[in-house]
Amino acid sequence: MALKVLIVDDAAFMRMLLKDIITKAGMEVVGEAANGQDAIQKYNELKPDVVTMDITMPVMDGIQAIKEIKKQDPAAKIIVCSAMGQQAMVIEAIQAGAKDFIVKPFQANRVIEAIQKVSRGDFTPLLFHRLKQIL
After folding, report:
1. Which stretch of DSSP H or E encloses residue 33?
2. What pLDDT, in 10s, does the model give residues 55-77?
C-alpha cells in the first residue's frame, strides 16, 4: 500500500513540485493545504502517514500547526520544509514535534528519503548536527 502524504505550503508552485516528486516515487498525495489552519483540518480528515509542512504561511504558520497536530495526535509524522537561512525556525519546528526537515530548493532524492525514513519511524539521531551543516 502506498504511503499517504499531506502537502502543506502556501505556494501552489511548491505544492505542485512536491506532489510531482512524491507521486513519481509511487506514494499517494491524499491532500494539500495552503496554511496551518487548513492543514490541521485536512490532517484530521485524511489521516495521512506523513505530512510535509512549510514554516512560513498566512493564517497560521507551520510551527503552530505542528503543535496543534501533535497535541491531537502525538504519533503524527511531520517533515518541516524550510528555505535556506531558517535554521532557528527549523529548530523550533523540530522542538514542536517535526521529525525531519527538507530544504528548498527541493532535491527529489532527499524528499523521498525523508518521507520514507519518517514513515518507518527512523528519525535521524544527528538531526541537529545535520541541521547546522545544511542551513
Report:
1. strand 28-33
2. 989 999 999 999 999 999 999 99
Among residues 30, 25, 32, 31, the alpha carbon closest in space to that of 9 is found at 32
Element (H, E) at 5: strand 4-8
**Residues paired with 103 in a beta bridge:** 82
How many whole angstroms separate alpha carbon 54 and alpha carbon 15? 10
pTM, two decimals, is 0.90
pLDDT at 130 over 80: no
Residue with cell 505530512: 51
CA distance 79 to 69: 12
Average pLDDT over residues 4-25: 97
C-alpha cell at 110: 532527499
Closest CA to 52 of 12, 100, 120, 13: 100
Nearest alpha carbon to residue 100 among 73, 119, 74, 75: 119
What is the β-pairing status of strands 4-8 and 78-83? unpaired
